[in-house]
Amino acid sequence: MRRSFAKNIKAISPVIATIIIVAVAIVMSIAIAYWMMGLATTFTRYEKLEYTAAYAVAEENGWTVSLSLRNSGSATATVNNIMINGIPYTQIKITEENITVTVIPDVAGEPQSVNPGGSIDITIQIPAKEYQAGNFTSGVSVEIVVVTAAGNQYPKTIVLP
């Protein structure tokens, strides 16, 4: 007597097959969701500079403005310009003399990078002269804007003592 193997083999039940298919679909959807979140955070990095200190000190021949900024964002911020009263500091000059506003470090010559969680200290020396950006005297408000390579602007108004 000959027996056929095909008649004795049993397949898995349809209920178990459905459970396996659903489990595989759930695992795949979770894996895709984690992949998409990782992809989204790569493209949604941002820079955010915050002033931790900003003040001016009267000197013998002008003022020294000190700025401390901290990057609380998730991307590196690159400071590449500073504007004083709407004019880039490299273009503020006294017409009759060759005296300019100086910034340390010179962000126009060498842009300064600020890593996430890092900070930068900027010193601006303003001689007591009349500029095309305005007459800097004691009691005058000066608007200083830090500009980054991403095009973001971070303004701060300081009153000269």
Structural notes for this entry:
This protein has helices at 5-8, 14-43, and strands spanning 49-59, 62-71, 77-84, 87-88, 102-104, 112-114, 119-127, 130-131, 134-135, 141-148, 153-159. It starts with a helix and ends with a strand. Strands 3, 4, 6, 10 and 11 form a five-stranded antiparallel beta sheet that branches. It has a four-stranded antiparallel beta sheet with strand order 1-2-7-5, with no helix packed on it. A hairpin with a 2-residue loop joins strand 1 (49-59) and strand 2. It has two domains: 5-43; 49-159, Sandwich (Immunoglobulin-like), CATH 2.60.40. It is rod-shaped and about 100 Å long. It is an alpha+beta fold and 161 residues long.
Number of helices: 2
- Weakly predicted, low-confidence segments: none
| Main structural class | alpha+beta
The CATH architecture designation of the largest domain is: Sandwich
* Number of E strands: 11
CATH superfamily of the largest domain: PCu(A)C copper chaperone
Using the alpha-carbon principal axes, give the shape: rod-shaped
Q: How many angstroms does the end-to-end distance come to?
A: 112 Å
Describe the sheet with the most strands.
5 strands, antiparallel
CATH topology of the largest domain: Immunoglobulin-like
The CATH class of the largest domain is Mainly Beta
What percentage of residues falls in helices of 4 or more residues? 10-25%
Tell me what portion of residues adopts beta-strand conformation. 35-45%
Radius of gyration: 31 Å
Mean of all residue-level pLDDT scores: 83
What is the domain tally?
A: 2
- Could you spell the SSE succession in H and E letters? HHEEEEEEEEEEE
Looking at the chains present, what oligomeric state does this protein adopt? single chain
